[in-house]
């Protein structure tokens, strides 16, 4: 079954590459893209118990306030970077494929506990089930931030290949979810609305893509200039949008002029894992991309505890989220909270459970 799926994926990909891209073929390309996305989904989530598990050494318990995954081709310095950042030993050697399982490490930075995962080297074709790539990328999907570690001497080729593998697994790097409204219904056919001009999608192409998923009744609203890939992402509904930093390792092997050029590339941090160069810059960028929010607690009649903040993820920073992070029963006893910091107009301010907290706020809970 796996071999048949692989052949079908390759055939459809080949057809897409052969098709000329213009307005007349957009309809046909949309259909091929939808078919390819469906086949890939079946490939990475096989039915039944055959090969669906994560594999020995891959199922790592999530600990700390955030999880950062190191992804890259073999022998680009991921293990050295983890060892020098977190003091964790991951087998390091000058030949390829030395890391064969997920190696976890933990660092404390600005009061937050961040789990680092050294994932085994990705090989080309991982998204099609080759090597242990399927398990590697399945773990990468659970990360809050991905560091793509590249060899500075051959960065562009590796960058493109890794991005292609991660895209095939439904991981979207440094992107926002498409601004497309999609709602299935029982009857009424396909109701297509576009609030702005579309360069690729029209009503006919949208209907063709939805028909491939056996969807014949739905409301579709395009609020931006969307592509067939955007629509497929929304229909599939299993895409993850993860921030990503490109870590260019081995900068001790290039000139200062080349280093200046690298610094201008977006989302990039040049380092030397072996010499521990530029680690401060990397950690600061990781912190910016994780967008964690630190909240300090203040017991009644005492000074705030600035040593161990409660760390909340971006988007879940209400007082209710803070209570649930400490204990799920705390919200039942909650009366109101006193907050000091940038999220309030005056210090302290009495707030309810829906108040949104900001980084380094101080909070005192009052129970019923």
UniProtKB/TrEMBL annotation:
Residues 291-367 form the TGS domain. Gene3D superfamilies: 3.10.20.30, 6.10.140.1070. Residues 66-291 form the OBG-type G domain. Keywords: GTP-binding, Nucleotide-binding. GO terms for biological process: positive regulation of microtubule polymerization. InterPro entries: Beta-grasp_dom_sf, DRG, G_OBG, GTP-bd, GTP-binding_2, GTP1-OBG_CS, P-loop_NTPase, Small_GTP-bd. One of its GO terms (cellular component) is nucleus. It comes from the Eukaryota. Signal peptide: none annotated. GO terms for molecular function: GTP binding; GTPase activity; metal ion binding; microtubule binding. NCBIfam families: small_GTP. This is Developmentally regulated GTP binding protein 1.
């Amino acid at each position: 079954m796996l071999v048949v799926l692989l052949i079908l994926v390759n055939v459809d990909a080949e057809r897409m590459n052969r098709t000329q891209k213009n307005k007349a073929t957009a309809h046909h390309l949309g259909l091929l893209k939808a078919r390819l996305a469906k086949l890939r989904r079946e490939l990475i989530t096989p039915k039944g118990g055959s090969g669906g598990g994560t594999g020995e050494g891959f199922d790592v318990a999530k600990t700390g306030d955030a999880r950062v995954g190191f992804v890259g081709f073999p022998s680009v310095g991921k293990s050295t970077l983890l060892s020098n950042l977190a003091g964790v030993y991951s087998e390091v050697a000058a030949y390829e494929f030395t890391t064969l399982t997920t190696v976890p490490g933990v660092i404390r930075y600005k009061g937050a506990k961040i789990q680092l995962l050294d994932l085994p080297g990705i090989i080309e074709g991982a998204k099609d089930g080759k090597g242990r790539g399927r398990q590697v990328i399945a773990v990468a999907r659970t990360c809050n931030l991905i560091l793509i570690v590249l060899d500075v001497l051959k960065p562009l080729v590796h960058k493109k290949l890794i991005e292609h593998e991660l895209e095939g697994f439904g991981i979207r790097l440094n992107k926002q979810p498409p601004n497309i409204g999609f709602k299935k219904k029982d009857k009424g056919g396909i109701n297509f609305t576009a609030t702005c001009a579309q360069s690729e999608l029209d009503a006919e192409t949208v209907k063709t893509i939805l028909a491939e998923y056996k969807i014949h009744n739905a409301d579709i609203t395009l609020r931006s200039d969307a592509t067939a890939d955007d629509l497929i992402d929304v229909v599939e509904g299993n895409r993850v949008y993860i921030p990503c930093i490109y870590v260019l390792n081995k900068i001790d092997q290039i000139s200062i002029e080349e280093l200046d050029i690298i610094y201008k590339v977006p989302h990039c941090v040049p380092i030397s894992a072996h010499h521990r160069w530029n680690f401060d810059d990397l950690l600061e960028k990781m912190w910016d991309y994780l967008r964690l929010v630190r909240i300090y607690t203040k017991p009644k009649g005492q000074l705030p505890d600035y040593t161990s903040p409660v760390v909340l993820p971006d988007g879940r920073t209400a007082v209710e989220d803070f209570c649930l992070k400490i204990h799920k029963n705390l919200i039942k006893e909650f009366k109101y909270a006193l907050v000091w910091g940038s999220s309030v107009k005056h210090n302290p301010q009495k707030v309810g459970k829906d108040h949104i907290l900001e980084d380094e706020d101080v909070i005192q809970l009052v129970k019923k």
